[in-house]
Write a structure and sequence with these properties.
Order of helices and strands: EEEEEEHEEEE
Largest sheet: 8 strands, antiparallel
Strand content: over 45%
Structural class: mainly beta
Oligomer: single chain
Number of helices: 1
Number of strands: 10
Protein name: Phage tail tube protein
Length: about 150
């Protein structure tokens, strides 16, 4: 199944260290880009001599699975309740619950995550100020299709 992302909404809950709640979500407004949710492997490598007369070769092995940081880009709005909670999360050492709801209103992703980076982007002089936020998932990403 192919999912449309136009009209997707992202939420944060003001619940440091969770759990992921059923209610109490605050929408993060002015969303422009939602980024990526996924995993990648950390790789170990070893140099081996496959042929005594030839050059050494490098072989790889998967060693640890890690979740990729999700970067979201927003129009910077100091009055947006969701962005206020994002700033709070950025200055906290705790992880916070996040929820991404696709336009059908049913399909969603939920996870605990750390706000690892937040910054105002000034860009070109004729555009609006933006906010770039990197969210590092901390644990499994719950998919509504899996329940």
């Amino acid at each position: 199944m192919i999912y449309s992302t136009a009209g997707s909404r992202i939420f944060i809950a003001d619940l440091p260290d969770g759990p992921i709640p059923a209610a109490g979500w605050v929408e993060i407004g002015e969303t422009e880009t939602l980024g990526t949710l996924g995993v990648e492997w950390q790789m170990d490598e070893a140099t081996v001599a496959c042929d005594p007369d030839g050059p050494q070769e490098v072989e790889f092995a998967k060693s640890a699975l890690r979740r990729q940081a999700m970067q979201i880009v927003l129009g910077n709005d100091l009055t947006d309740a969701g962005q206020v909670v994002l700033w709070k999360a950025a200055y906290s050492s705790s992880d916070f619950p996040f929820r991404l709801v696709l336009p059908d209103g049913v399909t969603e992703r939920a996870w605990m995550g750390f706000v690892m980076r937040i910054g105002e982007v000034f860009g070109e002089a004729d555009v609006v100020m933006r906010l770039e936020v990197d969210i590092q998932p901390n644990g499994a990403i719950q998919r509504s299709e899996d329940t």
